[in-house]
Amino acid sequence: MHSKGMYVTYDVTKESGKRVVSAMARCGDCRVPTYSPVQSNQTYSILMPSFLVDGGDGFTVFKDKSIKVITLGNCIRVCRA
Q: Residue limits of the 5'-Nucleotidase C-terminal domain (predicted)?
C-alpha cells in the first residue's frame, strides 16, 4: 500500500501484523515539513479508497468500529483513527 506524508520501516521477516518497526507522520500544520513518531493517543486523518475501508485485500483493520469514516463520493473515504 502506498503512503504519503509518512515514513514507515517494515521487517518483512516478521509475521503479518507485527512487521512495522517504526512509523513517522508528517506534521499537517507545519510550514516546513517535519516528521515525528506516530503516537497511539493521537488522531490522524487518512484518505483512502472505499475498497480498502471496506476490508478489501485483507485490510480488515479499517473496519474497526473505533475508526470514524467519512465518505467523499463513491470511491474515497476519510478515516479518523
A: 5-64
Q: Does residue 49 sit in the same domain as residue 21?
A: no
Task: Report the C-alpha gap between 81 and 34 in whole angstroms.
Answer: 20
Q: Do 23 and 55 fall into the same domain?
A: no
- Please name which of 35, 1, 34 lies closest in space to residue 19, comparing C-alpha atoms: 1
Same domain for 65 and 50, yes or no, is yes
* pLDDT per position as a tens digit, 16-60: 889 999 999 998 888 998 999 999 888 887 777 778 878 888 878
